[in-house]
Design brief:
alpha/beta, 5-stranded mixed beta sheet, Cytidine Deaminase, domain 2
Length: 160
């Protein structure tokens, strides 16, 4: 994977703010940003699967929908998605369909990660589009928020 830059870290920090918003409402704390080549934030999102009753309302999808509406186009060439957790199959699939230039993520996901941890969907040679992927950007704070969320959730479930 390509190395990350201080600019990548800056956007992951902003995505962590989105993840915190998810945490605050009881959603799995994942946050995402869609950023233009000029550095303009075109879309923001955090997990909303529970409150929206929508299994597709992952942070990345929410942010992609917002950016696509703003640009009035589902194709997003030259765009980078920053997300606090390695994308799942659904999310990287949507990003490939959107023709993104790049995906940058924080924590690796050893259970459902589709950018190298479990699968590496973007590297399938037969696909008609490939997206650059950079992982592990501020992995520790991204992972810490997720670990805290699930630790608290397990504690609540054991009390109930």
């Amino acid at each position: 994977m390509p190395p990350w830059t201080e600019e990548d870290a800056r956007y992951i920090r902003l995505a962590l703010e989105e993840a915190q918003a998810a945490y605050d409402i009881g959603e799995v704390p994942v946050g995402a940003l869609v950023v233009s080549a000029k550095g303009e934030i075109l879309g923001r999102g955090y997990n909303r699967t529970i409150i929206d009753h929508d299994p597709t309302a992952h942070a990345e999808i929410v942010a992609l929908r917002s950016a696509a509406r703003q640009l009035e186009n589902y194709r997003l060439p030259g765009i980078t998605v920053y997300v606090t957790l390695e994308p799942c199959v659904m999310c990287i699939g949507a990003m490939l369909h959107a023709r993104l230039a790049r995906v940058v993520f924080g924590a690796y996901d050893p259970k459902t990660g589709a950018c190298g941890s479990v699968l590496d969907v973007g590297s399938i040679p037969k696909l008609n589009h490939h997206t650059s992927v950079t992982g592990g950007v501020l992995a520790e704070p991204c992972g810490d928020l997720l670990r805290r969320f699930f630790r608290e959730r397990r504690a609540k479930e054991s009390i109930a």
